[in-house]
Amino acid sequence: MIPPPGFEWIRDGRATFLVRSDLRTWIVALLQAAAANWAGYVTRTLSGGRGGARVVQVNDQEVVVRPYRRGGLPGRFLRDTYFGMTPRPFRELSVTEALRHQGVPTVEVYGASVRWLTPGCYKGWLATRYVPGASTVWEWACTAPAARERDVVLQSIGKVMRRLHDTGARHPDLNLNNILVRLGSPNTPEVWFIDFDRAPVPGLCRRRPPADLARLRRSARKLDPEGTRLTAADLDCLEAAYRES
After folding, report:
1. By the 8 A CB rule, do 127 and 111 touch?
2. What are the b/e assignments for 202-214, b being 16+ CB within 10 Å?
3. Given 3-state DSSP classes, what are the helix, strand and coil percentages for the chain, each rounded to the nearest 5?
4. Which of 75, 130, 196, 210 is the most buried (most CB within 10 A)?
């Protein structure tokens, strides 16, 4: 696998790293600590997600480090062990960076690492920038925002979803917890996509965009069956902005 521009491979025994070259001095040490139960680091839990993601203060910035964890039935038996010679952390890093360079708002990735248990069997981690003040769409919806704010945020989400699909890409798990929002000043929303694990290479999407819109609606109904936090009108507003972009 060719590293994205500005990234480089580093190998150290059973560990392989793909990291931003300008951050290599400390990002490798951080990923090594993640594999060693955070020896020497003070961390805090990041809310949401599949579990295990930690926020770490390094120098003058905060970093999110996410271990790869399985969900569903496989997670009961192979919680954090994966198989294959092209590890998922490196694929996710490459796809996320490719989308970011095409103008899709993704959170910057700092590095990824794999610790090989045996050839073709590994555990993995991904380090990304922590976005202060951001919340998932679901967390934002639960704050009962005013009608004007709701419309502006939902329209912004619809527009960036269209930008994602215009690159020929899609999100592998588009749900309310994989989109971050933050209100800027004056109330200008910023939107980011996160968690591109198992995403196809941009430009090779075979799934029609309406399927992603339907998946987002299913996510809303799963989290909010009564439609009290995100109404049908809210989702219609988002979809209208998507189609008009």
Report:
1. yes
2. beebeeebeebbe
3. 35, 25, 40
4. 196
pLDDT tens across 45-59, in order?
Answer: 987 655 689 999 998
Q: Taking residues 146-169, what's their average pLDDT?
A: 93
Between strands 61-67 and 54-58, the pairing is antiparallel
- The residue written with tokens 């069956």 in the block is 225
Domain 135-244 has CATH 1.10.510.10: yes
Burial of 85 (0-12, 13-18, 19+ CB in 10 A): exposed
Q: Longest Cα pair distance anywhere in the chain, in angstroms? A: 55
d(CA 114, CA 95): 17
Please report, for residues 46, 51, 158, 201, the alpha-carbon distance to residue 67 in angstroms, rounded to integers and kept in the order given.
Answer: 12, 8, 29, 22
Tell me the β-bridge partners of 190: 182
Instruction: Write b or e for each residue in 18-45: b if 16 or more Cβ atoms lie within 10 A of its Cβ, otherwise e.
Output: bbbeebbeebbebbbbbbeeeeebeeee
The Cα–Cα gap between 139 and 105 comes to 19
Going from the C-alpha of 205 to that of each of 90, 106, 166, 226, 245, the distances in angstroms are 19, 18, 10, 33, 19
Rounded mean pLDDT of the chain?
90
Give, in order, the Cα–Cα distances in Å from 71 to each of 27, 68, 76, 137, 206.
27, 10, 8, 21, 25
pLDDT tens column, 182-195: 997 666 899 999 99
